[in-house]
Write a structure and sequence with these properties.
Blueprint lengths: L1 E4 H6 L1 H9 L4 E5 L2 E6 L31 H8 L28
Parallel strand pairs: 1-2
Antiparallel strand pairs: 2-3
Length: 105
């Protein structure tokens, strides 16, 4: 267990967080009196998080988890092989054609 004052924690927080990841507990003190404890959290999750309690009406089609075919993958990646894919993000914005203003004196 490491005991430190608030000023030390402010100055060297990353060091104390590293100590916590190594299993240490850091007790934060104000005027040498303990006020808080910094310790590692216990991660109990072993698999993906179940979101059904938050979204009970949502149904995900099992096909969602299947790999994309080559045409769909090319469309997502912006390949030139797909004629319907538009590349809107590559157009120059209208303000880029303006000349930069001279700074005022």
């Amino acid at each position: 267990m490491i005991m430190v004052n608030i000023a030390d924690v402010k100055a060297r927080l990353s060091e104390y967080l590293e100590a916590v990841t190594q299993g240490e507990t850091v007790v934060i003190c104000r005027h040498n009196r303990p006020v808080a404890e910094l310790r590692p959290i216990e991660v109990r999750r072993t698999g993906p998080r179940d979101l059904t309690p938050m979204f009970p009406d949502w149904k995900i089609d099992p096909a969602f988890f299947e790999p994309l075919d080559a045409e769909e993958l090319a469309a997502w990646e912006g390949s030139d092989d797909v004629p319907d894919a538009t590349r809107v993000a590559e157009h120059q914005p209208p303000y880029s054609a303006r000349k930069p203003r001279r700074p005022r004196r």
